[in-house]
Amino acid sequence: MRHDVIHVKIAGRHSNTIKKLEELISSTGGYQVQKPGDNQRPDLLIFELGQNIEKDFRVIESLLDSHAVGDVFLLSESAEKSVLIKAIKIGAKEFFTFPLKEEEIRDALVAFKSKKDKSNHQETKQSGRIIDVIGSKGGVGTTTIAVNLAVGFVQNPNVQSVALVDLNMLFGEIPIFLAFKPNYHWGEITKDINRLDSTFLMKVLSKHSSGIYILPSPHHLNGDRPCTPEIIEHLLGLMQDMFDFVVVDSGQSLNDTSLKVLEMSREVLLISLLSLPGLANTNKILTSFYNLNYLPKDRVKIIINRYLKKSKISIEDAEEAFNRKIFWTIPNDYKTTMVAINDGKALSQFASKAPVTKSLNELAAELIQGEKKGVRKGWSFFKG
Question: What CATH class is the domain 129-369?
Fold first, then answer.
């Protein structure tokens, strides 16, 4: 079999549908439609679901598990969320609803061919950077920083794509911070995570008006499969291949799953406040990291949020307590931040010129550049 030709089998229920698909496939290039009776293993099966959807899904799953077909595109009269979730679970690469849109199918065929070509030629792509944002304790502004850092990344001309993942297992608040209602959360795609690929993940992700793609956490206990280190490794590994930056809001959890995120992250931003509880907790977390030899010291960057120059505890006091430099300080502007959250807007959309907004944008730029420019002792209107 020639590696540059993709063999397609069409399992349609209506002659008009089959004819339209044959024309689309033939006009795309790089494809060959198998004739009836051709028993050669197809690289791609285009399957039209019937009235007995459960039965059809069992057939497709059996074909995939036995490697009788390569990949599957599904056609369906139903656009229900439950049907799409089942399609993701069995490992279908595309899901189209009637009436079929020719441009949408052609684009999917072109993308599928491109992906196959890259796989055949073993082309490599530089992985994106995972940025893990962890709070030293509750209420330090972890989600605020994660959300606005992601927006800061996507607004930078050197960055093309950014994803934001909420790993607060029960109390994730990203949809509230950005005033949107997601169609899916990661709990709905973890039941058969190994079948998830980039095509379906893009259907599951929600795109915010700022340009970032968001994967929220479940907002209540609903019986979904718990997130495990294996699940998060697959999910973040996939997103790492799709996005320039993947920002993870890890909340305050330190369990096996969050340790896997730490392991995969290029930078870990540990958020603290200049308060005794904040500094004490930060020290405990740092000590745990180093005692376990889990992370190199230069991968963990301490961020002081809500910084006030006249604080009773100084930056120097904190650095002495940690025996290391503070990487960044974000000025205290509680009123602006809270109004932005209550309005469901990123700070750059609500108060683009506020010092807190500029500080977060500069932090994003600093992480993008990756240059060691010394320690910032608080944000200033002037760079020098």
Answer: alpha beta
